[in-house]
Amino acid sequence: MTADLSQLVKAYDVRGVVPDQWDETLAELFGAAFVQVTGADAIVTGHDMRPSSPGLSRAFARGAAARGVDVTEIGLCSTDQLYYASGAFGLAGAMFTASHNPAQYNGIKMCRPGAAPVGQDTGLSEIRELVESWMDSGAPTSDATPGTITQRDTLEDYSAHLRGLVDLTSVRPLKVVVDAGNGMGGHTVPTVFAGLPLTLVPMYFELDGTFPNHEANPLDPANIVDLQKRVREEDADLGIAFDGDADRCFVVDERGEPVSPSAITALVAARELARNGGKGTVIHNLITSWSVPEVVRENGGTPVRTRVGHSFIKAEMATSGAIFGGEHSAHYYFKDFWNADTGMLAALHVLAALGGQEGTLSALVAQYDRYAGSGEINSTVDDQAGRLAAIKAAYEGREDITLDELDGLTVTATDWWFNVRPSNTEPLLRLNAEARDEPTMVKVRDEALAIIRG
Hints:
Elements: H1 5-8, E1 14-17, H2 24-38, E2 42-47, H3 53-65, E3 70-76, H4 79-89, E4 92-96, E5 105-112, E6 116-117, H5 124-134, E7 149-151, H6 155-163, E8 174-179, H7 185-193, E9 198-203, H8 225-234, E10 238-242, E11 249-252, E12 258-259, H9 261-275, E13 281-285, H10 291-298, E14 302-306, H11 310-320, E15 324-326, E16 332-334, H12 343-355, H13 361-366, E17 372-373, E18 377-380, H14 384-395, E19 402-404, E20 409-412, E21 416-422, E22 428-435, H15 438-452
Parallel strand pairs: 2-3, 2-4, 3-7, 8-9, 8-10, 13-14, 13-15
Antiparallel strand pairs: 1-5, 4-5, 5-6, 10-11, 11-12, 15-16, 17-22, 18-22, 19-20, 20-21, 21-22
């Protein structure tokens, strides 16, 4: 097929519409290119529940095997289950998923052995160049003896690994509603939660890549309405929602109120620091709440601020030897999980923290949720650079304000801050604001939006 790889190969992964933008023929070329760039002699692959996933995954395996590489297929899995296999087996890996995107999309998240990410600067550009060079003629014939393609089930081993990191055996019984969104949480949760002191109320556990109930993106408030309602109806202790490939988790408290990912980051950071004797580095991106570095310092740790994006978090985790990292997008990264992100491990930490004391989740997280935040607000603009320059001009030179450009523009005062950063893929500016109280946050948010929207 004739494909525009500039639209298909993103900063961190491959993602596009099937079969319009890519198909199994192209997936086979990606498999061959992946093993050539990584130098792997064996790889592991997995896939989500989308209708196109099994075929694309098998085509990728064929492309890799044709170049002499042995392929272990773990089949249906969550993205963090694929990372587990990459880490536990020491193999480069490829996960076929488009996360929370609609049904017609699919993609590939690739990693080197030990779940080390493959992004634009770590091999993805070279993979794209090879695939482009082969699209007309096909991948060159390899002299190597074709590799084998074998199957292996890793769900029990993945579950055992996670449960070995968080002790839930002595927690009080909890009632938890889980919304899998017809995604891979419906596959992993029953095994991970089996035998724990939990009453599980499952929602949308049927694996269905057409997402018949709602989009599998819990960061959009519209997609957790069902979960919020069910938590209140069941008088449950909490609710947990997973995205399509179940690498992110989102939490609601016993009232059905959303718990901010920053509060979850702070809670898990405190627990991980306690496990490490009150010492360690914790990574947070620059739009997580002020409460995150505060809690890290209060618990003896060292907070390190990074740009937004999992490749930056994982790189900083590796460089600094950090024990944990969290993002506003509900991605949570653990040293004990090969620096990779796993929503399931974060969920287990929340359950252990709640079950280890008698209070409600809302009372527990109040100590970690200290400020008023705007959430992320997107604005479509004609000139991203021009609007950012206008914001900088409006605040530059004021003694009470500092500016930094680590990622977009961050404007910080004594009682508030906001960050504006451009989308890499759309004509958008993304605003996040926070203040010590709600009226100040609203004022700061609206001032910034007035400049952004001209």
